[in-house]
Structure formats: structure tokens, C-alpha cells
Design brief:
381 residues; alpha/beta; TIM Barrel; 8-stranded parallel beta barrel
Length: 381
């Protein structure tokens, strides 16, 4: 099975070391453009753009990079509770049209109560997933061309519809990651691609089986992806030395502060990440070549595959054998590591490289009248 490999746009910062400003670099538009264009040229299938108050806005970043890339797809966050599903559908269709079908969307419910409160979201974990389910039902149906009346506990729309359809039909794919039962239920009902963070293969296998069974019970099939960091070098020894250097400036106080902040979140996935290493430096290789050092100070995905090209490719194949089709990788710093991955890892993978989308003929219509389009007159015989 050919694998699709994505890269990451570090809109929250980048550098050579974690947990310190040492070796950091400014993340401006010029730098993000360098990373995106490198990923585009090197054969990555797309880029994940993170979301949150510590990041530049994912939608604006994606829109700004469309004209300077050719085939790169942009995985952009949807935030239920922060925006209406109808407005989000209009934005999604617009981004898909402007990119000529290169838009993908990642449903993010959020997990940090302090950040959520700052965005006006005060729901607990269970209610956030209930709201996300309602949001997604409306978002999907509107994008698929329906006129939607919906009255739920959290979402209420009447006559919601889309006047400009997306390029991808019936709509752009929806991605989502979450480890709780509520998250898996949502994925089984509505999601196209279920993402897991880089847990050991046995744990990933269990999650895939759970989501697959729940989706089958609803007559659906779900595809699977995984989010990992990667440290690849010419030899395994060099790769492990690079892993050690990455956290060379991280002290115990920084680790303790980061872990305390992570425990504040109600994310089941974040707690599972933290449990892999428990904040300890002496138990970071949690599975062969799977290193949890990133998670000492970084929230979200906290594990990296470490080794030479053949070794990392073999570990990726173990995940692929479980049903993983897409790997979203990243490395520090992201520009240089994109080239290392291309040079040292890609030759050992059966890589799926997207084609450059061909130009399309847009539908012709005049200016809207009374908030609608006037029908085109039939051609005279």
C-alpha cells in the first residue's frame, strides 16, 4: 500500500532545541513559505497547520500559501463552538475553490479549559463532543449541497445552504483525532480520516479496532492516519545523538511546568501521551525506535520515530500494517528536517505523491440578486 506522508507548518515557533529560546528562529511568512515550498517540491502530500492561541491563524496561513505552492494540500482546523457550522462551511468551500481542491479539514474540539474560556467556550468534555457532533452534521450537509434545518441542543439553523460549491465532491474530507469514547463515537459517525498520536503499535492497533468496529456498526468505513515527529539520520547512532541534542537545554523545572499544564487539560489523548513517559528522562524509548522526549515539554503529539532511513521506514510499515495510510510527520527545525526526511527516508517508502491539480472551468454567474443567483436563461434555438 502506498503511503501518504504529510509535513507540518510550525506556526507556533521553530528552532533547533525544545523548551528554550536557544537556537530559535522567527516564524514569519517568509519562513513558512520556505517550509511549505520545500514540502511541495519534495513530495509531501500535504501539511498540517496547528491551531490555538499560541499559533498563527491556520486559515489565513493556508490562504496565503496557496499561490506559492502547486500540489500541497492544507489540513486546516475546524473549531466547533467558536464559529457557526454554516459560516465554517462557506469558508471551507472558499478555501477549497481558491486552492483548486487542495483543502482538508481537521475537527478540533479543544482540551485546555483556560484557552477554551478565552474563546468563549465553557462546556465540559462531554458537552463539547455533543456540540461537535451537531456542528459536524450541519457542516457536512451544507457542504454537500443540502438546504439544512437543524435544531439541536447546541446548534440551531434554519434554511442553511451554500451558494458556491467546493471543488471536491461531495465535499472536502474531514479529519479528526480523539481518544475518548465520545471522540471515537463521533469519528465513527461522521469522520473520513481518524488520526491518532504516535502511541506504541499495540495501543494504536487497539484504537483502530475500536473505531473500525464502531464505524461498521453504522455502515461506514473510516481511514486512518498517525501524527508523529521523526528524527532520521544516516546511522541509528547519529539519530539517537540528535534526539538527545533536541532536549539538551530542557531542565527539570521546565519539564515540571509543562507537565502540570498538560494535566490541566481534559484531553484523554493528552493524558495518554503524558503517561507514556510520566515526565521522566530515563524511560523515553517507549517502544523500539519510538521516543517520547518531545512530549516532555510539547503538548499534543509527543513521540518521534528515531533511526536511520531503513529503520524508520520499517517502524512506519508496522503502523501501515495496522491500517495507517497517512503519516503526518515533523522535525526540528522543520525546513532542514523536511530535506533530511526526503533524502534519507523517502527512498525506503512506497510513497504516494499527489499530482498537480489541473485548472478547472468555474461556473459562470452574475451578481447575486436578493441574496440569490438569478437563473441562467436558456439558449435560443
Amino acid at each position: 500500500m502506498s503511503l501518504s506522508v504529510f509535513w507540518f507548518l510550525p506556526t507556533h515557533g521553530d528552532g533547533r532545541y525544545l523548551g528554550t529560546a536557544e537556537g530559535a528562529r522567527p516564524v514569519d511568512h517568509g519562513y513558512l513559505q520556505q517550509v511549505a515550498q520545500a514540502a511541495d517540491r519534495l513530495g509531501f502530500g500535504g501539511v498540517l497547520i496547528p491551531t490555538g492561541r499560541s499559533c498563527e491563524d491556520a486559515w489565513l496561513v493556508a490562504a496565503s500559501l496557496i499561490p506559492v505552492t502547486q500540489r500541497l494540500r492544507f489540513l486546516v482546523a475546524l473549531r466547533p463552538g467558536v464559529i457557526s457550522p454554516t459560516q465554517a462551511a462557506r469558508q471551507a468551500a472558499t478555501l477549497d475553490r481558491l486552492s483548486n481542491g487542495r483543502a482538508l479539514f481537521n475537527l478540533v474540539t479543544g482540551g485546555d479549559p483556560e484557552e477554551l474560556a478565552g474563546d468563549g467556550v465553557f462546556l465540559d468534555h462531554r458537552e463539547r463532543y455533543a456540540e461537535s457532533a451537531e456542528f459536524t452534521r450541519v457542516w457536512r450537509r451544507v457542504l454537500e449541497g443540502e438546504t439544512v434545518d437543524y435544531e439541536g441542543k447546541h446548534v440551531h439553523v434554519r434554511g442553511a445552504r451554500l451558494m458556491f460549491k467546493p471543488v471536491q465532491q461531495p465535499r472536502p474530507p474531514l479529519w479528526f483525532g480523539g481518544s475518548s469514547d465520545a471522540a471515537q463515537d463521533l469519528a465513527a459517525e461522521q469522520v473520513d480520516v481518524y488520526l491518532t498520536w504516535g502511541e506504541p503499535p499495540a495501543q494504536v492497533k487497539e484504537k483502530i479496532a475500536q473505531v473500525r468496529d464502531k464505524a461498521a456498526a453504522q455502515g461506514r468505513k473510516v481511514r486512518f492516519g498517525i501524527r508523529l515527529h521523526v528524527i532520521v539520520r544516516e546511522t541509528n547512532e547519529e539519530a539517537w545523538q540528535a534526539a538527545d541534542r533536541l532536549i539538551a537545554h530542557v531542565d527539570d523545572e521546565t519539564i515540571a511546568k509543562a507537565q502540570a499544564a498538560f494535566l490541566r487539560a481534559d484531553s484523554v489523548g493528552q493524558r495518554r501521551m503524558a503517561a507514556l513517559h510520566a515526565g521522566r528522562r530515563d524511560r523515553l524509548e517507549i517502544s523500539p525506535n519510538l521516543w517520547a522526549g518531545v512530549g516532555l515539554v510539547r503538548s499534543g503529539a509527543g513521540t518521534a520515530l528515531v533511526g536511520d532511513g531503513p529503520t524508520v521506514a520499517a517502524r512506519m510499515q508496522e503502523y501501515a500494517d495496522l491500517g495507517i495510510e497517512t503519516f503526518i510527520l515533523s522535525g526540528y527545525p522543520h525546513l532542514e528536517e523536511a530535506y533530511r526526511v526526503s533524502e534519507l527516508l523517502f527512498p525506503h517508502l512506497d510513497l504516494q505523491v499527489p499530482e498537480v491539480p489541473q485548472p478547472r472551468v468555474a461556473d459562470a454567474h452574475g451578481e447575486a440578486v436578493a441574496n440569490d443567483f438569478t437563473p441562467q436563461k436558456a439558449a435560443r434555438g
